[in-house]
Amino acid sequence: MDKVEKLNSQPLPWYVAHTKARQEQLALDNLQRQNFVVYLPRYKRLKRVRDQQEMLFEPMFPRYIFVQPSSDQQSLAPVRSTLGVTNIVRFGNIPAIVPADVMERIHAFEAERNNLGVQQISPFKEGVQVRVASGPFAGLEGLISDVSNQRVVVLMQLLTKETRVSLSPHQLEVV
User: Fold this and answer.
1) pLDDT by residue for the chain (175 residues), tens digit each?
2) Domain 122-174 fold
3) Which residues contact 98 (CB under 8 A, 6 or more apart)?
4) N or C terminus: which one in the chain shows less Cβ crowding within 10 Å?
């Protein structure tokens, strides 16, 4: 293989596009329609929504997506005017390039994180200080002593005595 063939076989660089707030998916869809290779890493997260714990996938880097031209002839110029995109991240006049090994590590982290179960993602672990956010004990703080699938046992000071209180995870927030 000669030097020219080696250069042509090099993977194309990844660039970073800055998106409008909460418009990562819109930008991704529009860039894909223009034949760009687009990557929006997301991670699994537990979030309290309407007094319940829900598993959500949120952008790992809010307001940023990774863009790669589909060929070495494809210009980056249309990215800036794509619906949902504000600009390409630059250092001076030069677009920032994300090294391939960094992209691989982001992808590996995303895959690993998204394969975790609820227990592994949950911030509620034994020994963690929490505050009750809703219910009759709202505002009180305690220390987690035990965690199961549906309940969290919290040690709280009630009436000058340490008491074990069993609560639903959606009622708690980490202090």
Assistant:
1) 443 343 345 689 999 999 999 999 999 999 999 999 999 999 998 887 776 778 899 999 999 999 999 999 999 999 999 999 999 999 999 999 999 999 999 999 999 999 998 778 888 999 999 999 999 999 999 999 999 878 999 999 998 899 999 999 889 999 9
2) SH3 type barrels. (2.30.30)
3) 13, 14, 15, 16, 66
4) N
Annotation: CATH topology of 3-118: Alpha-Beta Plaits (3.30.70)
Contact of 65 with 24, CB cutoff 8 Å: yes
Which is nearest to 65 in space by CA: 49, 47, 42, 35? 42
Distance of CA 146 to the CA centre of its chain: 27
> Among candidates 163, 174, 166, 172, which has minimal Cα distance to 138?
172
Burial 125-159 (b: 16+ CB within 10 A, else e): eeebebbbeeeebeeeebbbeebeeeebbbebeee
SS (H, E, C) 92-140: CCEECEECHHHHHHHHHHHHHHHCCCHHHHCCCCCCCEEEECCCCCCCC
* Amino acid residing at 132: V
In eight-state DSSP terms, residue 31 is: H
